[in-house]
Write a structure and sequence with these properties.
The chain contains 11 helices and 14 strands. It is an alpha/beta fold. Helix 2 runs parallel beside helix 8. It folds into 2 domains: about 230 residues, Type I PLP-dependent aspartate aminotransferase-like (Major domain) (Aspartate Aminotransferase, domain 2); about 120 residues, Aspartate Aminotransferase, domain 1 (Alpha-Beta Complex). The strands form 4 sheets. It has a 7-stranded mixed beta sheet with strand order 1-9-8-5-4-2-3, sandwiched between helices. The structure holds pyridoxal-5'-phosphate. Pyridoxal-5'-phosphate binds next to helix 3 and helix 4.
Length: about 375
């Protein structure tokens, strides 16, 4: 059993993807160009954002968003304590201070109250993460941020295609970023990412920042980076995007099956707010005996993952911030309880039954 079965997905789209890659090879236009521009149109159309700028990764998409806002030394950026390292890494990389906030136990996401409490007169932005594929409560978070003149960035690396109150992830915050890392809900065959915004000034600046701050050939207005997407990835993504709406439905079906099987076994399935549609980048449960269960499953050929075993404030890389255990109790508890199960649009009911049976067995021994 695969944790995320990319082979099955490739077999389904093989001919079209091969043709798309060949098209790029024949064109010999490998960086940016028409394939990338077409993808950007299709992505912004899909999620209902005004503008899209694709990037070399989800991490660079976050970095470019902060650069676009002029984040630097002396600034604070609020980030969740419980997320992938990239969310906070880019803040520190620009010389700004990541201000960690604890998350909500039920949804794994930050709340407006936690954000409000962390805002100071140095706060430039808050990065909210739509963890595992579910958006946070944007209405209250946007209200709190706008009250204080703080920008909101959605780190939607795990939630492209998700919905919050009928609006798509990547169309709600001031800037939104996603990742096309192969294992993400919409994955390329290499690294890739994108920034979305409705703000045309941001859009123009992002286009320049992604390409060495260049506004016309060899005219550099900003200090930028090489953050460009390559055309082969764009071509692959354009094929995958066509199948993506159906894959999101398959994800709902598979999640519904896990939900029912787990409930039957007396295990709480992940909580999704009724106004949300999750894309389940991860299907993650909380288990008191997590390590025991994980070991049992892995011994029985069922791959699992822990997203994430250490809250970010306690990572060595952030030790200079001086955080101590006990400061982020919810993140700490989650990091010892969460277990992500094999999940992808093509997982079969037989595989899911096998996973849940194994969990039951692990718990009972
Ligand atoms: C994957 C991920 C990223 C980084 O994306 P890359 O494309 O791997 O750089 C950032 N934030 C979160 C929450 C992620 O899951």
């Amino acid at each position: 059993m695969e944790f995320i079965d990319l082979k099955k997905q490739y077999r389904r789209m093989e001919k079209e993807i091969d043709q798309a890659v060949k098209r790029v090879l024949d064109s010999c236009r490998f960086i940016l160009g028409p394939e990338v521009e077409a993808l950007e149109e299709e992505l912004s159309g899909f999620c209902g954002a005004g503008f899209c700028v694709t990037t070399s990764s989800g991490t660079d998409a976050l970095l470019l968003s902060l650069m676009c806002l002029g984040v630097g030394e002396g600034d604070e950026v609020i980030v969740p304590a419980f997320t992938f390292v990239a969310t906070a890494e880019v803040v520190a990389l620009l010389g700004a201070k990541p201000v960690f906030v604890d998350v909500d136990y039920r949804t794994f996401n930050v709340t407006a109250d936690a954000v409000k409490e962390a805002i100071t007169d140095r706060t430039k932005a808050v990065i909210v993460v739509s963890l595992y594929g579910q958006c946070p409560d944007f209405d209250s978070i946007m209200a709190v941020a706008e009250e204080s003149g703080v920008y909101v960035i959605e780190d939607a690396a795990q939630s492209f295609g998700a919905e919050y109150k009928g609006k798509k992830s990547c169309s709600i915050a001031h800037l939104s970023t996603t990742s096309f890392f192969p294992a993400k809900p919409l994955g390329a065959y290499g690294d890739g990412g994108a920034v979305f915004t409705d703000n045309e000034d941001f859009y123009r600046k992002l286009l320049a920042l992604r390409n060495h701050g260049q506004v016309a050939r060899y005219r550099h207005r900003y200090i930028g980076i090489n953050g460009r997407l390559d055309a082969i990835q764009a071509a692959v993504l354009r094929v995958k995007l066509k199948y993506f709406p159906q894959e999101i439905e398959l994800r709902q079906v598979a999640a519904g099956r896990y939900d029912a099987l787990l409930e039957e076994a007396g295990i709480e399935p992940p909580y999704i707010e009724p106004h949300n549609l999750s894309v389940y980048a991860q299907y993650t449960v909380k288990l008191k005996d997590r390590d025991k269960v994980a070991e049992f499953l892995n011994r029985n050929g069922i791959p699992t993952a822990i997203h994430y075993p250490i809250p970010l404030p306690y990572q060595e890389a952030f030790s200079c911030l001086g955080h101590r255990e006990g400061e982020f109790p919810v993140s700490e508890r989650l990091s010892s309880e969460v277990l992500s199960l094999p999940f992808h649009p093509y997982i079969t009911i037989e595989e899911q039954v096998r996973v849940v049976e194994a969990i039951k067995e692990a718990i009972s021994v």
